[in-house]
Write a structure and sequence with these properties.
Length: 150
C-alpha cells in the first residue's frame, strides 16, 4: 500500500493486476480499501472469475436451471456448506486438499479440479480419486452431486 500511495502522491496512475476477478477472495480488495481510505480515487475493473475459467477449461457448465452456485474458500471449514444443494466451488484448495477431499467424500460429491487454470502449467484432474493430496495455491475444485454434469 505504501508503494502505491507513493506513486499516487506523485500524480502517477497505478494499475494493480491480479489473476481472476479482483472482487472474489482476492488480496487486492484489501489494498483497494486502504488506498480508497487514503482519499484516492479508485476503480475496480472486473476480470474473469477463476471458477468460470476452470469450468470453461473443463468444457462443462457450472449451474443449470434452478441450481445454486456456492463459492467456498477452502481455507475455512467447509463441511456445512458442502451439505447444501447445488454446485460447490472450492477456491484456493492447495494446502487443505486432504481435508477438502475427505469432506467431499463424506458428502458423496463428485469433484474435478483445475490447478493453475489458464497458465502454461495447468493441470486438470477429472475425478476426486485423481486429485492429489498436495497441489499449488491456484487449485480450484468444482463439486456436484451428479458426476454426469461435471
Amino acid at each position: 500500500t505504501d508503494m502505491i500511495a507513493k506513486e499516487l502522491k506523485q500524480h502517477h496512475n497505478v494499475v494493480f493486476l491480479t489473476l481472476g476477478d479482483p472482487t472474489i477472495y482476492s488480496t487486492y480488495i484489501y489494498i483497494h480499501k486502504s488506498i480508497h481510505a487514503l482519499g484516492y480515487s479508485t476503480c475496480i475493473i472486473n476480470g474473469i472469475p477463476s471458477f468460470c475459467a476452470a469450468a470453461a477449461a473443463l468444457n462443462t457448465g457450472l449451474v443449470e436451471k434452478d441450481q445454486p452456485l456456492i463459492v467456498i474458500p477452502s481455507s475455512y471449514p467447509v463441511e456445512n456448506l458442502l451439505t447444501q444443494k447445488g454446485t460447490k466451488v472450492l477456491m484456493k484448495s492447495g494446502r487443505k486438499l486432504p481435508y477438502v477431499k475427505e469432506a467431499l467424500k463424506s458428502q458423496a460429491l463428485q469433484a474435478v479440479m483445475v490447478e493453475n487454470c489458464t497458465m502454461t502449467n495447468e493441470i486438470q484432474y477429472r475425478s476426486l480419486d485423481e486429485i492429489p493430496d498436495n497441489a499449488g495455491y491456484y487449485s480450484l475444485i468444482i463439486a456436484k452431486e451428479d458426476a454426469v454434469n461435471i
